[in-house]
Design a protein that fits this description.
The protein has about 110 residues and is mainly alpha-helical. It has one domain. Helices cover about 45% and strands about 10% of the residues. The chain is built from three helices and three strands; from the N terminus they run H-E-E-E-H-H. Helix 1 packs across helix 2. The longest helix has 29 residues. It is elongated and about 60 Å long. The termini are far apart.
């Protein structure tokens, strides 16, 4: 997975003190692509392009809507699979599915 895709999925907000763009070290830690060398303490998944990728703040922000949509679709798929494999044992199972976001109408 490319660094931009990993950041779109995992980076909740742009790092404080990182003005324009970021790169990634071999340890998975983010650092400013240019200027002062400092790292975020928590590592991210190591990108396939970690040694050469430079992700700008604008590129990261542009990918956020698509990443959120993909995450929601993945969640919906997981819930659907859970509903299809679950043997309903009563109200507790129905409440579990409802809490997970399952809203599909059951056809008689």
């Amino acid at each position: 997975m490319k660094l931009l895709d990993i950041l779109a999925r995992d980076l909740k907000e742009w790092p404080e003190g990182f003005t324009d763009s970021v790169g990634q070290s071999v340890l998975g830690r983010l650092h400013p692509a240019y200027g002062e060398i400092k790292h975020l303490p928590e590592p991210f998944e190591l990108a396939e392009d970690w040694g050469s990728a430079v992700v700008s703040r604008a590129d990261w922000q542009a990918t956020l809507p698509a990443a959120k949509k993909a995450a929601a679709e993945d969640r919906e798929k997981e819930i659907e699979e859970m509903a299809n494999t679950m043997e309903f044992g009563g109200m507790a199972d129905a409440r579990l599915l409802y809490a997970a976001g399952y809203r599909k109408q059951v056809q008689p």
